[in-house]
C-alpha cells in the first residue's frame, strides 16, 4: 500500500464512525479534521470532497457490519442457526464488533433518502445485497430439507430485513431496547417457523 493509500484508509477508518453517528448532514469538515488530526487540505488532498469521504466511509461501515455477522455465521453449522445470528447480533449489539453508531444501512437510508442520491443508492444496494444473502441461505435450507418447500425465500428475506431494521429504528428512536428485543424475538420466531 502506498503512502497515499494508507492516508486515504486512515481517513476512512477515522471518519466512518463520525458519519455513522452524526450522519452526512451533521458531519462537518471540522468533525473530519478532529477525527483524523489532519488539516482540511490534507483531507481534501486525498478525496474530492466530503461526498467522497462519506461514500467510502459508508462502504467501510457496511463491511464492518457484514464482517461481524459473517464471523458469527461461520461458527454455525445449520442454516437455521446461521439465520438466527441476525437476531442475536441485533439483540446484543454491544457484544459484537459492530460499527460505532449502529447499523449504517438504517442510519444512512433515513438521512439520505431525499438529500443525497449517491448515499441513498449505496443504502438501497446494501439492502438488496443483504436480502439476497438471506434468500440464498433460505433456498439452501429448502434444498437440504431443513425448511419447508412452500416458503418464498425472497419474501421471507425482505421481511426479515424489514423487521430487523424496523426493530433497530424503533429501539433507537424511543430509547427502549426492550422494543428492539421484542422485535428480535419475532425475527427468531419467523426463522424457527421456516422448519
UniProtKB/TrEMBL annotation:
Matches recorded under InterPro entries: Homeodomain-like_sf, HTH_TetR, Tet_transcr_reg_TetR-rel_C_sf, TetR_C
Residue ranges flagged as DNA-binding region: 28-47
Residue span, HTH tetR-type domain: 5-65
Residues of the signal peptide: none
Keyword field contains Transcription: yes
Keyword Membrane: no
Keywords: DNA-binding, Transcription, Transcription regulation
A Pfam family this chain is assigned to: TetR_N
Name the UniProt record assigns to this protein: AcrR family transcriptional regulator
Species this protein is from: Dyadobacter arcticus
Amino acid at each position: 500500500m502506498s503512502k497515499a493509500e494508507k492516508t486515504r484508509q486512515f481517513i476512512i477508518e477515522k471518519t466512518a464512525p463520525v458519519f455513522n453517528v452524526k450522519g452526512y448532514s451533521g458531519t462537518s469538515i471540522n468533525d473530519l479534521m478532529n477525527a483524523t488530526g489532519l488539516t482540511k487540505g490534507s483531507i481534501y488532498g486525498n478525496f474530492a470532497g466530503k461526498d467522497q469521504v462519506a461514500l467510502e466511509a459508508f462502504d467501510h461501515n457496511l463491511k464492518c457490519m457484514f464482517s461481524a455477522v459473517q464471523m458469527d455465521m461461520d461458527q454455525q453449522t445449520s442454516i437455521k442457526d446461521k439465520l438466527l445470528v441476525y437476531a442475536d447480533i441485533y439483540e446484543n449489539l454491544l457484544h459484537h464488533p459492530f460499527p460505532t453508531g449502529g447499523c449504517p444501512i438504517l442510519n444512512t437510508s433515513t438521512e439520505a433518502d431525499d438529500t443525497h442520491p449517491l448515499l441513498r443508492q449505496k443504502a438501497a444496494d446494501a439492502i438488496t445485497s443483504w436480502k439476497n444473502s438471506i434468500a440464498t441461505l433460505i433456498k439452501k435450507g429448502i434444498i437440504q430439507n431443513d425448511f419447508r418447500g412452500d416458503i418464498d425465500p425472497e419474501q421471507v428475506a425482505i421481511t426479515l430485513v424489514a423487521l430487523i431494521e424496523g426493530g433497530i429504528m424503533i429501539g433507537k428512536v424511543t430509547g427502549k431496547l426492550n422494543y428492539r428485543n421484542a422485535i428480535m424475538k419475532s425475527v427468531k420466531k419467523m426463522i424457527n417457523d421456516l422448519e
